[in-house]
Amino acid sequence: GATLYFVNPRWKYTTAYANSDFMNSLKQSKASISFGSVILPFKIYQKEVVGSVLYNRSSDIYDKRVYNFPGDRRIDNFGVYYDTTTTGVDSVRIGDKEDEITGGLDIVNLSLGTKVYKDLSLGVGLNIYTGSYEYNSNQQIRFTWKPAYDTLITYHPFIKGTYSGVNFTLGALYKYRDFRIGAIVKTPFKLQEKDDVQFLKDVVINGVTITSPDAISARPVFPVEYKQKWEIPLTVGFGASYRIKGLTLAGDLELRNFSKAKLQYPSRWSDPNSPDTTMDLDWNSLTQFRIGGEYAYQSKYGTIPIRAGFRNDP
Predict the structure, then answer these.
(1) Could you read off the pLDDT of 66-92 as tens digits, one per residue?
(2) Which of 25, 107, 275, 293 is 20 to 30 Å from the Cα of 250, by its Cα?
(3) What 8-state DSSP symbol labels residue 217?
(4) To which H or E segment does residue 132 belong?
(5) Which class for 113: exposed (0-12), middle (13-18), buried (19 or more C-beta within 10 A)?
(6) Do residues 173 and 182 touch, judged by C-beta distance below 8 A?
(7) Do 99 and 134 form a contact (C-beta atoms < 8 A)?
(8) Global pTM?
């Protein structure tokens, strides 16, 4: 099985702050496989076993913002600010600031399950967390002096982050005639994030690019392999289903103890080898419930499953 996910939101708003308007926009149009699975029943020494390989896009990361600096806009895309001091600066023109972040967190699950006693089945799954994101920003600031030395500085910080982590899912299922009840436990784990953080700037004076290391720098603000760890706590779930002829009714509840989540990072940002410090994230614990049903309609073309359901998304 597989699920194709398509999203196409449009979002714009204006924020007024300190007599200036900041434009913010979000535009996204993307399609991706958000879920895919292969389920394989087989036997080991006459014991029936079910194995599965599952892929899930756990979280999509996307945001794009444009901050508008109006000022006295005598030049396209630049806000002009005049200096009334005696420093000789005629004006400073600040361009619009653009931020964009894209990426996602993916999970690959490898599982095995089998019946251990009569109608009681147990299973275990290995969850491998992976994925990455990229952050890009761009803003130009133009300085004009007397005599006219037109200086243009382009700031474009960049972050490339990758995720890694492993935990387990333990499951149990009991079947009694047409009634089934189950439970799962997802073990706590640390999701590691490794970031390549760079603060880049280009300097051009009167059309000439300055090549000195102090003027044009590609030096990272933080070391290239800056690491931090997200402590993800325990998750517990319960569910049940009942089948009436061709109709199956089901519901489940999942408790996520996110109030215990913490973030570990080096105590000195500039030194990745410094001792870790821990910060409480002040997240809320979440409870999600899902209810639904499936009716297997028998037609001359075969069985057609008709499904409907509801869930909250805290």
Answers:
(1) 776 665 544 455 555 555 555 555 567
(2) 107
(3) B
(4) strand 120-145
(5) buried
(6) yes
(7) no
(8) 0.76
